[in-house]
Structure formats: structure tokens, C-alpha cells
Design brief:
Layout: E1 2-7, E2 30-31, E3 37-38, H1 40-51, E4 56-62, H2 63-73, E5 78-82, H3 88-102, E6 110-115, E7 118-120, H4 122-137, E8 142-147, E9 158-161, E10 167-174, H5 179-187, E11 191-200, H6 201-211, H7 217-222, H8 232-235, E12 243-248, E13 252-254, H9 258-264, E14 269-270, E15 273-275, E16 280-286, E17 292-294, E18 298-305, E19 308-313, H10 321-324, E20 333-336, E21 339-347, E22 350-357, E23 365-367, E24 372-379, E25 382-386, E26 389-393, E27 398-401, E28 407-411, E29 415-422, E30 432-434, H11 438-441
Parallel strand pairs: 1-4, 1-6, 4-5, 8-12, 14-16, 15-17, 16-18
Antiparallel strand pairs: 2-3, 6-11, 7-13, 8-11, 9-10, 9-11, 10-12, 18-19, 20-21, 21-22, 22-29, 23-30, 24-27, 24-29, 25-26, 25-28
Helix pairs in contact: 1-4, 3-6
Length: about 450
């Protein structure tokens, strides 16, 4: 089974835990079978592997999310990187050509496109596997999976099938309706459009070439900025005459707001927080090092991180996006492929970070032209390589790197460190990477 997982989003609806770098699918609010906290993307990946251990999964995502994906899923996961966000049709077209040209997936292979962020049980991915069978058996160019509605929702688009059979030809699509119109749709056997599409790879690659001017994957990647911003629904699905839908009636939740996320969180409280006995239906997520106390409140969500603090009525939290867009702050928590860091303080000409480097990992071998850096090792053991010279580091050691020095930090055990950056201009763009001699990193990533 070939699956393309769409992992996008700007991180506005689950602020302050989510941001442009850490979208909602990377927040660890669920638990795996061993009781460890996991994120949505980890949960989805685990579920797919459990249903089909041989499934080939490629994640289509933006540059800003690649490090978090590798941090949470490992370096071996297949990732198709969008140079910039251009909506779902260009993203799926790029991923399809990536499968075809870079991974050598054959034309007649079935491909299923799924969003990465619904909260579902394993039956959802069993149904996804069923799409593969329908595609291979033929009968239509596109096969969709629609969700059996549980109420007349105004939040979702609708698929109107010709019949109420398990698999039906699609008659038409409807935009998000008002409640009364949605009730009429349900009488006709309508399904929520959950953005799950299946097709033979040849179909989508051909469709991409018809609608976009490019030669192959590398050429499309280079021309990606010129691609129209258009959804896959508008560009392909609603114009396709040969299309059918299969019904899914298992557990499915769109956890796009704190209100819906609070319904599926592993625990109502995560982090250092207390509620008194008079509180009802209160959820707290606290990533700060200070405690939160809530008393006498009902139907409330409190979320706190280095990016900000949210205190909201649960129902009202679904309307926070325009207010969050007015808050222009740099993300304070960043996941990297090698670990993570928190921005503790920043001002004119300086920035202070708390860095966590995973055991066996290393930062890239790089330099900065516009700033000096120093690293104070708080815990853990490892080594640095600075301009080709190796140095063992232990708790209490301070390592300095002047602007222009190539450097990396390598962790033997997990390292916690403070990093101080000082310079006239401190930007994410001021970084140049270099290859590191293999003798320094043998057996490490």
C-alpha cells in the first residue's frame, strides 16, 4: 500500500502549543500502548504500520516541518518537501511525481492520499487498505472515502452519492451548508468529505502534466513557486467524471480546535497544573516550568507554552484564529532532527537557548557569519568538533565559537546545554552547512 500523508497547516488553531514550525500533528497529547506520550503523526504512523507493516508511507510537508518529522519518526521515513505552501493540488502532484520519478513506484500501483491529523481507530486504515483493492480492480479513475455523518454539520463539505450502497458512483459535491441544508443532505445518504483520495499513480502523474508545465519531479520542484494555489478538490476531484465513494462509519474526529482536541487527549491535565474540586470539564496543557492553578471553572481549556498563554471557553476556542494572527511572535520551541531547543530570552543583539541533544545524535557541521556562540554543558557527555579539531565535553564545560568557525556538537549521552548567541544580526538564515569527516561521526546520525 502506497500512502501519501499530507502534513501541512500553519498552527493557528492550537496556539500557543502550535505554531508555523510545530503544527498540531506534532504536539504530544496522546499515549501509545506503553503509556508514553505521542503526537498525532506518531499515532497515525503507528496505526498504519499495525494495519499493514509493509505500507510505503511518504509524508508531503513544508520545509519548516521536516526536522520535526525526522525527530518524531526517524530519519528513514520518506519525505517529499514542498519548497513553499501552494495548497493541496500542487502538494499531491509533487508527491506523486516524487513517488514515480524518485522512488520508482510503477504506474499501475495504487496510491492513497490521507490527511495526517484525524483522530481515528485502526478500522480507518483498514478502510484505507480497502481503497487500494478498489483501485486495482478498476471501475473509476478516482475513489474517495467518505465519512458517515453523526450529525448535520456545517463545518464539512459533503459528497452526495447516487445510492446508499457501501460503494457508489458520486453524483455531486456540496460546499459547507447551513444546518437545515445539511439535514437534507443526510436524508440523501450524503457523506462528509474527509480529503481521502485513491488512484493509480499513472492517473495523477498524467493529470499533473496536463495542468502544470514541467518535465519531471526535479523540474516541478524547481518551478513550484509558479504553481497555482488550488485545492485537489477544485482542481481534480470536482471535475472528474469517473469517480466513486466508499462509506466509512468507524471512529473519526477532526481535532482542529482545542474543543475537539480536549475530547481525545490522553489525560485532561498535562504538565504542572492543579484544578480544585469545583472545576468541571477543564483541560490544561502546561509546557512552562511554573505551576498553573485553576479554581471554580467549567468547560475551559488552558494552554501555556513559551509562545503564550491561552485561557478560553472550550466552545469559544474554535474561533481563536483571527486573534492569534494578530500575535506576531517568534516560535520559542523548535524540534530538530537531533533534538529540540527553547528560546529562553532574546533581545537586541543576543539570544539564549536551552538545547536538548538526543543521545547518539549531532547537530549539523555549520558556521554563522554574523554571530558568535558559546555552549555551556549542563548535563550529559559528548564532544565538539570546531574547525576540524575534536574536544571532549562534560557537565560544566564551556565551548566558544567565533563567527565563521565551523562547529558541531555530538552527544554520547543526552546533552542538556545553554547556548548563547551574540551578534549584530541573529537570524535563522545565517547558517552555512558543511560535510563532516566521517571519522568524527562513525556510527552516529
Amino acid at each position: 500500500m502506497n500512502i501519501i500523508l499530507l502534513s501541512g497547516g500553519s498552527g493557528k488553531r492550537l496556539w500557543p502549543l502550535s505554531n508555523d514550525v510545530r503544527s498540531k500533528q506534532f504536539i504530544k497529547l496522546f499515549k501509545d500502548e506503553e503509556g508514553n506520550y505521542e503526537s498525532m503523526v506518531q499515532r497515525v504512523f503507528r496505526q498504519i504500520s499495525r494495519v499493514d507493516k509493509d505500507a510505503k508511507v511518504t509524508i508531503a510537508t513544508s520545509k519548516s516541518q521536516v526536522a520535526a518529522i525526522h525527530n518524531q519518526l526517524g530519519d528513514s521515513v520518506s519525505v517529499c518537501i514542498e519548497p513553499m505552501r501552494r495548497d493541496t493540488f500542487p502538494a499531491i502532484a509533487l508527491a506523486a511525481t516524487y513517488l514515480h520519478d524518485e522512488l520508482n513506484v510503477s504506474d499501475d500501483e495504487a496510491v492513497v492520499v490521507c490527511p495526517v491529523d484525524p483522530y481515528v481507530d485502526d478500522s480507518y486504515y483498514e478502510a484505507v487498505a480497502g481503497l487500494e483493492i478498489l483501485v486495482k480492480n478498476g471501475g473509476s479513475n478516482l475513489t474517495l472515502m467518505g465519512i458517515e455523518p453523526t450529525y448535520p454539520s456545517e463545518k464539512y463539505g459533503y459528497i452526495i452519492p447516487e445510492t446508499k450502497n457501501q460503494v457508489s458512483i458520486v453524483k455531486e459535491f456540496k460546499e459547507k451548508p447551513d444546518s437545515e441544508t445539511a439535514k437534507e443532505y443526510l436524508k440523501r445518504g450524503a457523506l462528509w468529505n474527509a480529503g481521502v483520495f485513491a488512484f493509480k499513480l499513472e492517473y495523477l502523474v498524467k493529470k499533473a502534466h496536463e495542468m502544470l508545465d514541467f518535465k519531471d519531479y526535479k523540474d516541478l520542484y524547481a518551478k513550484y513557486a509558479s504553481c497555482p494555489k488550488i485545492s485537489f478538490d477544485y482542481a481534480v476531484v470536482e471535475k472528474e467524471p469517473s469517480i466513486r465513494v466508499t462509506r466509512y462509519s468507524g471512529e473519526w474526529k477532526d481535532v482542529g480546535t482545542w474543543n475537539t482536541m480536549s475530547e481525545v487527549m490522553a489525560n485532561p491535565i498535562k504538565g504542572n497544573a492543579i484544578v480544585d474540586e469545583t472545576c468541571e470539564n477543564v483541560n490544561i496543557v502546561n509546557e512552562l516550568d511554573i505551576p498553573i492553578l485553576v479554581m471554580g471553572e467549567k468547560n475551559m481549556v488552558v494552554a501555556a507554552s513559551g509562545d503564550g498563554i491561552l485561557v478560553a471557553d472550550k466552545e469559544r476556542s474554535g474561533y481563536m484564529k483571527p486573534y492569534v494572527e494578530k500575535i506576531a511572535t517568534e516560535a520559542k520551541y523548535i524540534e530538530k532532527s537531533w533534538g529540540s531547543y527553547h528560546v529562553l530570552d532574546a533581545g537586541e543583539g543576543y539570544r539564549l537557548l536551552k538545547v536538548k541533544l538526543t543521545a547518539g545524535r549531532r547537530t549539523s557541521y555549520h558556521c554563522h557569519e554574523l554571530r558568535d556562540e558559546s555552549i555551556t554543558i549542563l548535563s550529559g557527555n559528548g564532544k565538539t568538533v570546531i574547525d576540524g579539531m575534536e574536544q571532549i565535553v562534560r557537565p560544566g564545560d564551556i565551548v566558544t565559537m567565533a563567527a565563521g568557525c565551523k562547529h558541531t556538537l555530538i552527544a554520547e549521552t543526552e546533552i542538556i546545554a545553554l547556548e548563547t548567541q551574540v551578534g549584530e544580526e541573529i537570524t535563522f538564515d545565517d547558517k552555512k552547512k558543511f560535510p563532516l569527516d566521517s571519522r568524527f561521526v562513525e556510527g552516529r546520525i
